[in-house]
Amino acid sequence: MLDIKFIRENPDIVKKAIKDRNIKLRIEDLLGLDMQKRKILMEVEGFKSEKNKASKGGKPDPEVIAKMKAISQKISDLDAKVVELDQKISNSVLNIPNIPHISVPIGSPEANKEIRKWGEEPKFDFKPKNHMELGQELDILDFPRSSKISGAGFCLFKGLGALLERALINFMLDLHTKEHGYKEIFPPFLVNRASMIGTGQLPKLEEDMYKLKDDDLFLIPTAEVPVTNIHRDEVLREEDLPVRYTAYTACFRREAGSYGKDTKGLMRVHQFDKVELVKFVKPETSFDELEALLKNAEEVLRRLKLPYRVLMLATGDISFSESKCYDIEAWSPGMQKNLEVSSCSNFTDFQARRANIKYRPKDKKGLEYVHTLNGSGVAMARTVIAIMENYQQKDGSIIIPEVLRPYMGGREKIIKE
Question: Is 309 in the active site?
Answer without folding.
Answer: no
